[in-house]
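User
Please review the sequence:
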Amino acid sequence: MAKAVSVRELIQKNNKTMSVSKVSGKVIPVLLFGAALISILTTVGIVFTLIYETTLFFKAVSFIDFFTSKELRPLSPVEPKFSILPLLVGTLMSSLIAMLVAIPIGLTTAIFLSEYASESTRRVLKPLIEVLAGIPTIVYGFFAFTFVTPLLREFIPALQATNVLSPGIVMGIMIIPMVASLSEDAMNSVPNAMREGALAMGSTKLEVTFRVVIPAAISGIVASFVLGISRAIGETMIVTIASGSSKNLTFDITQSMQTMTAYIVEVTSGDAAAGTTAYYSLYAVAMTLFVFTLLMNLLARYISRKYREVY
C-alpha cells in the first residue's frame, strides 16, 4: 500500500524545488556573462599590448619609412633597417598562390557534393575532405619542404630549396576544406523549389548549378573565399619551414621570401634581445597582420550580410 503524502509535505517539496530553480536562474546567467566577458577582455588585452608595444617601436623608427622603405635588416650591427614591404609582399604572394589552388578545387568540390553526389557518397567524401583541416600545419610545412619542393624542382630547375611557390600550393591544399565546406553549406541553403523550377523549364543540371544555385548562394561562397584568404595570411608554420627567411623585396615566386608570421617566429626565437628596436618591430608587424586579418573578416561579414538571400 502506497504511503500517503500530506499536503504540507508536497508544499515544502515544491518550495525547495522553486528555490533551487531561482538560485540556478540567477547564477547561470552570471556564469555565462563571465565566460563572454573573459573572451572580450582577452581580445582587449591583446589589442592593448599590440598598440602599446607598437608605439614604442615607432618612437625609434619612422612610420613612413616602415611602410615605404624597401630594406629590412633588423639584426644588422651597423645600420639596421626596418620595412614591412618585403614581408608584406611575401605574405600576399603566398596567400595569392594558396587561393589560386583552394578556390577552384574547393568550389568544384562543393558543387559536386551539393548538386551531383548522392547522399551516401556525400556522407563518405565530406568527412574525408575535412580530415585535411585536422592535419597539424607543421606536418604540412615538412610536406612542402621535403616533398613538394623537390618535386617542383624536377620541372622548375631554378626553384630554390626554400621558395614561396611550394608553401603557397600546400597552404591552398590546407584551405580546401574551409572553402568546400562553407560553399557547400551556402549552396545547400538554396531551396530545392528553385532547382525544380529551373529544371521544369528545361534547364540542364549544369545550367541550374551555375545560373540558379551559385548566384543564390554567392554571399556564402564569397565569404568562404575571404575567410580562406584570411587563413592563408595568418598561416605560420608552413611558410616558416618552406619559404625561407630572405628579406629581399621580390616578386619571383621561385625565390626565398619571408612572410609576416615567419618574421615574428624568427624574432621571438631569441635572435633579438628584449627591449631592442628589432624586438619591438615584431609588435609592429603583428599589428599590421592583425589589421589585415580584421579587415578580411569584416569584409566577409559585410559581403555575407549585403548579398545574403533569405528564403
Q: What stands out?
A: The first helix runs from residue 7 to 60.
